[in-house]
Design goal:
By secondary structure, the chain is of the alpha/beta class. It contains 11 helices and 6 strands. 50% of the residues lie in helices and 10% in strands. The strands form 2 sheets. A 4-stranded mixed beta sheet has the order 4-3-6-5. Helix 4 crosses helix 6, helix 6 packs antiparallel against helix 7 and helix 6 packs parallel to helix 11. The protein is globular, with a radius of gyration of 18 Å. It binds fe (iii) ion. The site of fe (iii) ion has 6 residues, from helix 5 and helix 8.
């Protein structure tokens, strides 16, 4: 399993693409992302001029929350993903898009995985939620259908979650943080927003091909942690209600 980033393989174009994306989204997220995201960016020490080196990032990250970034070993399926996270390893892809793909990507690249996800891995309560959600997923490895439902919670929080800060929507989901278009849409009046609700999210399939049609807002990360017992209960109920196909 390849879990290292071969840093010297990055080309000048790779670093330039990082710089363009970083500068554009850093500006665009002002007033839209939660302040903790910008604090996290400072803490992990990303440099706008070059792709982050995971070895350097981990030296800063690990003392804060115990998490480290590892190079994703090819395609990471749900179970492997949750195993890595439960082990406090965040798998990040190491490739970055080309200059001619700045705005459209079929698969997330390292700008998404690293710029979008890693700054929040500096926040202990956020990391606790991630680790506990993953441990919960690992209780259902015999039931991919139940893991699929749990993944909706991951999707509408870690990837596409918003905060409600004094009536104003602010972004913490990595899928939004790394997308110019979606960061503008998600916090605007145009998007449909609901309060965080485990049952409702379990009933909401996610959208991979385009922007989300709805978002769920939390008031703080503790709200996510506090929802885990209800999630576990709901998943056990769904598992019992629909026996595995034989
Ligand atoms: Fe992601």
């Amino acid at each position: 399993m390849n879990l290292t980033q071969h840093y010297s393989n990055y080309t000048t174009e790779n670093h330039t693409v990082w710089t363009i994306l970083f500068e554009r989204q850093y500006q665009n997220l002002q007033g839209k992302a939660i302040p903790e995201f910008f604090e996290g960016l400072e803490k992990v020490g990303f440099d706008r001029d070059r792709i982050p080196d995971f070895v350097e990032v981990n030296k800063r990250l690990k003392p804060l929350t115990g998490f480290k970034v590892v190079a994703a070993p090819g395609i990471v399926d749900d179970v492997l993903f949750f195993q890595l996270i439960a082990d406090h390893k965040f798998p990040a892809t190491v490739w970055i898009r080309n200059m001619d793909q700045l705005d459209y990507l079929e698969e997330p690249d390292m700008f998404h995985d690293v710029f979008g996800h890693v700054p929040l891995l500096t926040i202990p309560v956020y990391c606790q939620f991630l680790a506990k959600l993953s441990q919960l997923a690992l209780q259902f490895t015999d039931r991919p259908d139940v893991i699929d439902l749990l993944t909706r919670i991951y999707w509408y929080t870690i990837e596409f979650g918003l905060f409600n800060r004094n009536g104003k929507a602010q972004i913490y989901g990595a899928g939004i943080l790394s997308s110019v278009g979606e960061s503008n849409l998600s916090v605007s009046e145009e998007s449909v927003k609901f309060g965080f609700d485990v049952e409702q999210i379990l009933n909401t399939p996610y959208i991979k091909e385009t922007f989300q049609s709805q978002y769920f807002l939390i008031s703080d990360f503790k709200e996510l942690l506090a929802a885990l017992p209800a999630l576990e209960k709901a998943l056990l109920r769904l598992k019992a209600a629909q026996p595995a196909e034989v």
